[in-house]
């Protein structure tokens, strides 16, 4: 039985990952400050003897000397607001968790000899002028704007990972996660799929920003989690940055039309001004994930939306 630490355990991906790892027979220590995570996401885990919850901020050092952390063998550092709605309203906290919090997790990994996976983001590519985006693309980013607190702190988190890998030989893996969704995404999250599904099921207009021709690639959470677990498992991923996302591209307008059809076709689509620095295109090149991990997504958008809508209705 391995002891595995997950920061951001009460969040969308963290809770999903924790349930998988506990079900596989691992002991999981979950940390969350509950700023955007929800206790309801981990209710079933709290009844399991192989799960321990610590309410704490990964940016704080207070809990890092707990004896229970001495035998941690794997660290998944997922803690951070991921929706613009939340990271823009808590911009300084977002910067802190992705920089100071990341350094704390790297120090813990260095002390215990644990492997660590840092969840970075496709936002590291900014508004890309290379399409699709491979890991060696350096991005087209803006340090002076409302998204920078997230984009740039995630990028600096990657720099910390690079330094600890090269200076201290910490076994680090960096996942650049593209848009991920499933029923676990909270309905008030503010991201496009949860917005559209919530609006459609409550009889509201679907709010499209810009002309709807901007594109995204949407990966179902089960596929994303499988990719993260493979990154932790495979030695070929050590010291690597790897895109985890679905390479099939859709326009936002196309997404709105899919969701309207799947929920009954009664919604009106309205158009609103595009937010500052909103990327025009976003699509991962996943050749590296395929070659190093043998990974590719298997759940297409319509099937994923059917599952999500079915669970949201319930």
Automatic annotation (TrEMBL):
Its cofactor is NAD(+). Keywords: Decarboxylase, Glycoprotein, Golgi apparatus, Lyase, Membrane, NAD, Signal-anchor, Transmembrane, Transmembrane helix. This is UDP-glucuronate decarboxylase. The keyword Repeat does not apply. Pathway: Nucleotide-sugar biosynthesis; UDP-alpha-D-xylose biosynthesis; UDP-alpha-D-xylose from UDP-alpha-D-glucuronate: step 1/1. Its EC number is 4.1.1.35. It is found in: Golgi apparatus, Golgi stack membrane. GO terms for molecular function: NAD+ binding; UDP-glucuronate decarboxylase activity. It comes from Paenibacillus lutimineralis.
């Amino acid at each position: 039985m391995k002891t595995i630490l997950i920061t951001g355990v009460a969040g969308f991906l963290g809770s999903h990952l924790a349930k998988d790892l506990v079900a596989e027979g691992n002991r999981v220590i979950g940390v969350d400050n509950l700023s955007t995570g929800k206790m309801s996401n981990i209710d079933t885990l709290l009844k399991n003897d192989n799960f321990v919850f610590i309410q704490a901020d990964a940016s704080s050092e207070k809990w890092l000397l707990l004896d229970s952390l001495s035998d941690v063998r794997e660290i998944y550092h997922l803690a951070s607001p991921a929706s613009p709605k939340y990271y823009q309203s808590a911009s300084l906290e977002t910067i802190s968790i992705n920089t100071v919090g990341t350094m704390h997790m790297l120090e813990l990994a260095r002390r215990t000899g644990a492997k660590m996976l840092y969840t970075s983001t496709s936002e590291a590519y900014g508004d890309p002028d290379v399409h699709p985006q491979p890991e060696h693309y350096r991005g087209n980013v803006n340090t002076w704007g409302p998204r920078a607190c997230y984009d740039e702190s995630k990028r600096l988190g990657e720099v910390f990972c690079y330094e600890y890998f090269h200076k201290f030989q910490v076994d680090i893996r960096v996942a650049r996660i593209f848009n991920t969704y499933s029923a676990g995404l909270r309905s008030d999250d503010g991201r496009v799929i949860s917005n559209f599904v919530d609006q459609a099921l409550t009889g509201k207009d679907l709010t499209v920003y810009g002309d709807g021709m901007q594109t995204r690639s949407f990966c179902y959470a089960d596929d994303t989690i499988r990719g993260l677990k493979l990154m932790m498992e495979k030695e070929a991923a050590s010291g690597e940055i790897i895109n985890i996302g679905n390479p099939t591209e859709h326009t936002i307008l196309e997404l709105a039309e899919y969701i309207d059809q799947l929920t009954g076709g009664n919604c009106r689509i309205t158009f609103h001004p595009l937010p500052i620095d909103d990327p025009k295109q976003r699509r991962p090149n996943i050749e590296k994930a395929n070659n190093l991990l043998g990974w590719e997504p298997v759940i297409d958008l319509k099937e994923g939306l059917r599952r999500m809508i079915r669970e949201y209705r319930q």
